[in-house]
Write a structure and sequence with these properties.
Layout lengths: L11 E7 L12 E12 L9 E12 L5 E7 L3 E5 L4 E12 L2 H10 E7 L3 E8 L7 E11 L4 E7 L3 E6 L3 E6 L3 E6 L5 E5 L2 E15 L2 E15 L2 E53 L2 E7 L5 E7 L3 E5 L5 E8 L3 E4 L7 E2 L6 E8 L8 E7 L3 E5 L2
Parallel strand pairs: 4-8, 4-10, 5-9, 5-11, 10-12, 11-13, 12-14, 13-15, 14-15, 15-16, 16-17, 17-18, 17-19, 18-20, 19-25, 20-26, 21-25, 22-26
Antiparallel strand pairs: 1-2, 2-3, 3-6, 6-9, 7-8, 21-24, 23-24
Length: 381
């Protein structure tokens, strides 16, 4: 993520390097602490107002036990987590301050501190800011952290991104105004709270996701428990999706085994392939579209208002059907044995029930009820 005053330099006029190295050891010599300060005077082609930069680097090494917890609270910068080969957590934190004057940049740098707390079972690092620069400069605080594979992660970041490769233990992440990118989550109890950002996750075993005003792109996942508002979710393959509440956004899934969404409002949902089951208890002011339903599916149950429900079935599918609408239509294409009937004399209420396919007593069941919108059931090759 670019810092608040962008750090792309073209011309360097003067570099003054002041390095102060401080080493501190605890009684067991498990902790090493290094601080480096670099002062640069340069031109910034994007923002000529802030020409002076002060950079401070903090290096820290801490030995921990297996299954220790690492907690990081940062703001105005990025967090990079990589896996190490031993039981040592290593920090390399770069603090960059910018202002129109060298004194102003140094004052901003002096306002930024990293508070450490450590034991064999828990290590924490927190970015703290004092005073106010009154808009006279910018800052960026980036964490590069190497951790043992056995460490549990608690990451909190505002106005910055988080990058992870393979996470073997539980992850608990809270991200605001930033993105989070993960290769894989291999544990059973991962949690991500995301506001005003983007999640990109390639593979996961299990994830509890609370997302608002954001987007998420997920590859292959076994279990996703999700609450969403004003957001969109894209999933390539999922075994089980549970969404207690999904409002004001879009869902796009290539392949899903089981889906349950009790509350789906002001949203468009597209499922390319549904394998086993779908339950939507309250769909309002949105649209649901299932491109393909597997021949061996078990159950589809949808209760909707003010939102069309569109479903495509293969000619090889056998199932029972129970459809009903009020102030809407039922459109059947390709199933000659299904007839739509008017329940009232005015035709405001319609119903369609029966069995399709070659099986006389199929186990698959489609039950859709709608109001002020349509139900479309199509036979597709």
């Amino acid at each position: 993520m670019k810092q608040i005053t962008t750090l792309h330099y073209i011309t360097t006029l003067l570099v003054c390097v002041c390095t102060i190295n401080c080493y501190a050891y605890n009684k067991n010599k498990d902790i090493t602490h290094t601080v480096n300060t670099v002062i640069n005077t340069h031109e910034d082609p994007i923002n000529d107002t802030y020409k002076e930069t002060v950079t401070k680097t903090i290096n820290r090494h801490m030995n921990v036990n297996n299954n220790a917890l690492l907690e990081i609270k940062n703001q105005f910068g990025n967090i990079f987590i990589t896996e190490g080969n031993n039981n040592t957590i290593t920090f390399s934190i770069t603090i960059t301050a910018k202002s129109s004057t060298l004194k102003g940049a140094q004052d901003i740098a002096d306002r930024i501190n990293i508070e450490f707390s450590e034991s064999k079972s828990k290590v924490s690092a927190k970015t703290t800011l004092t005073g106010n620069n009154n808009g006279n400069g910018g800052m960026e605080i980036n964490y590069n952290v190497t951790v043992p594979s056995s460490v549990f992660l608690q990451l909190n970041n505002k106005f910055g991104d988080v990058y992870l490769k393979d996470c073997k233990q539980d992850l608990n992440a809270n991200i605001e105004f930033g993105n989070i990118q993960i290769n894989s989550l291999k544990a059973d109890n991962n949690k991500i709270n995301l506001k005003f950002g983007k999640l990109k996750l390639e593979q996961a075993k299990s994830l509890n996701l609370d997302i608002s005003h954001s987007t998420s792109e997920i590859g292959d996942i076994s279990l996703l428990n999700c609450t969403s508002a004003f957001s969109s979710i894209q999933i390539e393959s999922i075994d089980v999706l549970n969404c207690p509440s999904f409002k004001h956004g879009n869902i796009s899934i290539i392949s899903a085994n089981r889906i349950e969404i009790p509350d789906l409002q002001f949203s468009e949902t597209t499922i390319n392939q549904l394998v086993k089951s779908l339950t939507v208890k309250d769909l309002k002011f949105g649209q649901l579209k299932i491109e393909n339903i597997d021949n061996s599916f078990e159950n589809i149950s949808v209760f909707a208002k003010h939102g069309d429900v569109n479903m495509n079935l293969s000619p090889k599918t056998s199932c029972k059907v129970d459809l009903s609408t009020k102030m809407g239509g039922i459109n059947i294409k390709g199933f000659k044995n299904l007839k739509v009937e008017n329940i009232d004399r005015n035709g405001f209420e319609k119903a369609c029930s029966g069995t399709i396919g070659k099986k006389t007593n199929p186990t698959g069941f489609i039950n859709v009820t709608n109001q002020h919108a349509n139900i479309n059931l199509n036979n597709v090759e």
